[in-house]
């Protein structure tokens, strides 16, 4: 049966676009190099019609499909299991820009378009596409939508869901839903678009999307500040909202341990102020008028923050290179952590007002659990998203730390997140990594509704099975 399916897939997409054996290596290991799967094959369709035919062939053979974009996910949601029985459906070949509508301020692209290429295309058309994240050079728009990606500008523009006006989706039985309209208002029934966004390929396969474009700002300024506490960072955020309004596009917080790792592994980046205070904040503002107008507003904000003793010290980037360098420091935290050794990552969200209490409580609990544990906390404070990561104590074996304490550390973090009214996944998704955690922190009613939707849209349980929800056929919990 497997040989027959592979032959059928070859007829659909061509022999060169069905990979087997060693040729699948780049598609079966997760980005963090922690988990290795095995695929029956990797199929690379070049059109929506080919995706539909591939799904139909797999459905007939009752073989599961794992949709995959750039394979940059962090929750093991886009790689096959180790059984070698699943088909990886890679959408990387589907990278066409189908249409740009400048009057409607929309662009329609296929799912395999790399985010950075999309940003460049929109920029060349005289507009802005604001989704921005560390993996933008390799992640694809289909994966961004499947996980409802966030990034650094959510505080102003929202998540990937907020940037999407329409989708084209191949359903579990190989039908094509053509919903690529560019409408901002459409009250004709259930919101199917938002159902598929964030579903991690478990309900349908996104093949194209119509996305919002925005006017390019006349000026964009970046500031770096040192703050004495998270309470001060929260107060600075509130002041920035009041004084800058919609011009505030980024508000990132980084703790001293995170910046110390960057300074250690990338000293040429010359991290400013990191030794002065426990936290630093990176702010970005976009202005529709002029650079002088933006700079005056930024200076007024920082002067007020100094007067209120919210900020210990601050600098405003004088040019684009300085702004880029400051953002490069922020984006290098993850790489510095990797250079320091394997670590335990958590992507959580909380009400902004609860973040200081959450961090204080969780820091203390983890120091009691593992004396000397290094807490590497940073993230998008503007939208309540914190990357609460932990590193082995200085001089200890990193791999042994992860093996011994990963589950216990996770339990401490997630219990505190739940206690403070937060979510165990802010922008990375659930995938396989957090699937078994979800029932402990999600309403049973919500889980039951999710199971009913999954059953209705994918009754054979063939689309990315064992991701997000445990399959009922396995006897597992919701």
TrEMBL record:
A molecular function annotated in GO for this UniProt entry is: catalytic activity
One of the GO BP terms on file: respiratory electron transport chain
Taking every annotated instance into account, which residue ranges of this chain make up the domain FAD-binding PCMH-type? 35-216
Sorted alphabetically, the keyword list is:
FAD, Flavoprotein
Needed cofactors, names only, are:
FAD
PROSITE patterns named among the record's database cross-references: FAD_PCMH
Source taxon at top rank? Bacteria
Family named by the database record: Belongs to the FAD-binding oxidoreductase/transferase type 4 family.
PANTHER family, per database record: BLL6224 PROTEIN, D-2-HYDROXYGLUTARATE DEHYDROGENASE, MITOCHONDRIAL
What's the protein here called? FAD-binding oxidoreductase
Q: Which organism is it from?
A: Lampropedia aestuarii
């Amino acid at each position: 049966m497997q040989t027959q399916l592979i032959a059928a897939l070859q007829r659909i997409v061509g022999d060169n676009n069905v990979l087997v054996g060693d040729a699948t290596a780049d598609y079966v290991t997760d980005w963090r190099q922690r988990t290795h799967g095995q695929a029956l094959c990797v199929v690379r369709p070049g059109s929506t019609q080919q995706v539909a035919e591939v799904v139909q062939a797999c459905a007939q053979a009752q073989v599961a499909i794992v949709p995959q974009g750039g394979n940059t996910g962090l929750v093991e949601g886009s790689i096959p299991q180790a059984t070698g029985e699943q088909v990886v459906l890679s959408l990387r070949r589907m990278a066409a820009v189908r249409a740009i509508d400048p009057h409607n301020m929309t662009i329609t692209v296929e799912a395999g378009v790399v985010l950075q290429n999309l940003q460049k295309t929109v920029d060349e058309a005289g507009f802005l596409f604001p989704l921005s994240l560390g993996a933008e050079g390799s992640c694809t728009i289909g994966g961004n939508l499947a996980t409802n990606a966030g990034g650094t500008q959510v505080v102003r523009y929202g998540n990937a869901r907020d940037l999407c006006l329409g989708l084209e989706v191949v359903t579990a039985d190989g039908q094509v839903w053509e919903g690529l309209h560019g409408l901002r208002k459409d009250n004709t029934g259930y919101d199917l678009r938002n159902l598929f966004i964030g579903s991690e390929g478990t309900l349908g396969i996104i093949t194209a999307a119509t996305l919002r474009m925005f006017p390019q700002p006349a000026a964009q300024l970046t500031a770096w500040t040192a703050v004495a506490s998270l309470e001060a960072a929260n107060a600075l955020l509130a002041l920035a909202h009041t004084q800058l309004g919609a011009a505030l596009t980024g508000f990132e917080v980084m703790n001293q341990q995170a910046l110390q790792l960057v300074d250690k592994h990338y000293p040429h980046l010359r991290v400013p102020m990191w030794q002065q205070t426990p936290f630093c904040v990176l702010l970005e503002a976009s202005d529709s008028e002029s650079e002088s107008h933006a700079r005056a507003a930024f200076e007024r904000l920082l002067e007020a923050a100094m007067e209120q003793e919210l900020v210990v010290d601050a600098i405003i980037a004088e040019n684009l290179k300085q702004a880029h360098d400051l953002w490069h420091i922020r984006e290098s935290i993850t790489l510095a952590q990797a250079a320091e050794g394997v670590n335990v990552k958590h992507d959580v969200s909380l009400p902004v007002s609860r973040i200081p209490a959450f961090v204080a409580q969780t820091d203390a609990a983890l120091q009691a659990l593992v004396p000397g544990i290094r807490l590497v906390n940073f993230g998008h404070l503007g939208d309540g998203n914190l990357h609460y990561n932990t590193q082995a104590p200085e001089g200890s074996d990193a791999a042994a730390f992860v093996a011994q304490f990963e589950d216990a550390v996770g339990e401490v973090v997630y219990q505190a997140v739940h206690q403070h009214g937060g979510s165990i996944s802010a922008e990375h998704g659930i995938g396989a990594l957090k699937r078994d955690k979800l029932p402990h922190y999600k309403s049973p009613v919500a889980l039951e509704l999710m199971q009913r939707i999954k059953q209705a849209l994918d009754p054979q349980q063939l689309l990315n099975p064992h991701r997000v929800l445990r399959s009922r056929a396995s006897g597992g919990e919701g």
